[in-house]
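Good morning,

Both structures are done.
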Amino acid sequence: MLQEFKDFAMKGNFVDMAVGIVIGAAFGTIVKSFVDDIIMPVVGAFTGGVDFGNMFYVLKEGAEGVSYSTVAAAKEAGAVTINYGLFINAILTFAIVAFALFMVIKGMNAAKAAEEEAEEEAGPSAEVELLTQIRDSLAK
């Protein structure tokens, strides 16, 4: 059973998938920082200084008569909130990740198409030509 697991874990596809997941997680962190630290301040500047990260609606007050200026302050006071600004940030992050992946896949497809086109223009390989000649000789 241990050998079976070792064979499974050491297959190329499994290792490639694991590397992809780790790189994807790191990429997600970078994109989140890009959205939170670069995109959202610019969007906030165009919307009159609105900070989407601190846009929330209080469902249940944590302490009577207390106003909360940030999500963190509301949570610290025990208030129940709907954090729609953080949701907007998550949507933007998703859109950027999806667009980046689209561009990577589009580039890979273009490179693959160019490679296939180059192979078609080059004609059959010497090995294929030799096999064709052998086939034709045997047919005669």
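Second structure follows.
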Amino acid sequence: MSDLPVLNTSDPAYARDPYALLAPIAESGPVARVVLDGLPVWLVTGYDEAVFVMSSPQLSNDGIKNAGAAARSVFWTGAADRGLQSHMGRLDPPDHTRLRALVQQTFTPRRVAALEPWIRQVARDLIAKFPSGGDHEVDLMAAYAFPLPITVIAELLGIDPAERPDFRHWADTYLHADERHVELAAEAGRRVGELLAGLVAQRRANLGDAPLDISHEGTLVDGLIRARDEGDALDEPELLSLLFLLLGAGYETTVNLIGNGTLMLLSDPERLAALCKDPALLPAAVEEFLRLDPPVKAVFPRYPLVDVELGGVLIQAGEPVVVHFSAVSRDERRYSDPTVYRPGRGADRSEPSHLTFGYGLHHCLGAPLARLEGRVAFDELLRAYPEIELAAPVEELRWEHSRLFRGVSALPVRLGPPAV
């Protein structure tokens, strides 16, 4: 174990530039044995191997049932505690299949697409609060990248504005806690559970005897309470864990998409000018933001149900396997010049789509919403302030220490003159 490469979430170098630490690991092969935050894992850095891990029935998402002893002994895998982690992202078929079918009834592409005018208004309202005058500096994370996705997911869930700070605080605490803060994480999990239970109770009371019509206007909570499949419905623990998944994953990834994407644009004036000139390029740009600097570094481990050979190594049943999107998105075997920003990659199918939203059965249900929010956020910002620029050197930016997510804590920008 002492000879294995070590990756620590608390290491400032790993937070600032995981790519530099991942490159030599990826060069050794698409699957490598490393120590991640104290736990020996098989780290997947190859694209094809990542697709296999995320789609093969030979590997399980359910650590409670299938993790080995080493993974169960480490806090961050979640393999020893169901709680709020019992959502469908941590389950296998048939449990996963059942829950996903219920969720899909209310989280439909049509409903997401219909949200665009409202999301644009939320973005415009936030931009309207920026200080007037071209020389003003703004922390774009605090003023825009954070509040936009939080407002969207909170409104969709029906969370009262007065309670949103508490939801965000305790959810962030729970998601980012490490072995040094086990008791704090437990308290955060309890508090989030209480807040969600209160939300569900309130929505149930408001629904009363309303018909079980999932197309009815209302919050996502209303839709999930109403959802039925041949008489089956979400029980209370399932509903609470699912709402936690929507709350946590529903804003953190989009926050970092907006922050990381803006940083990429402002680091190169030509990129910024191209999108200001032609906003129709935004969808392709968003996909390249997601590939080149994914808002999610890695997800929770998967566990082989049997011994599996992958990438030239033999992985024993129960050993944790972690797909690292930061490395997978730059696999030289699948992408030409993978460190180069090139919107429209794969338009001719010469290169594959990125895997930032997962693959197969566990492909993120919220991907259309995240893409929509990102596209709208960039569009409204660049229309309002086409001469926006960084107000601090890139090397001075502070990156969040997180096992799961990649993003800056603050992004100081100089707005420049507003567009006419």
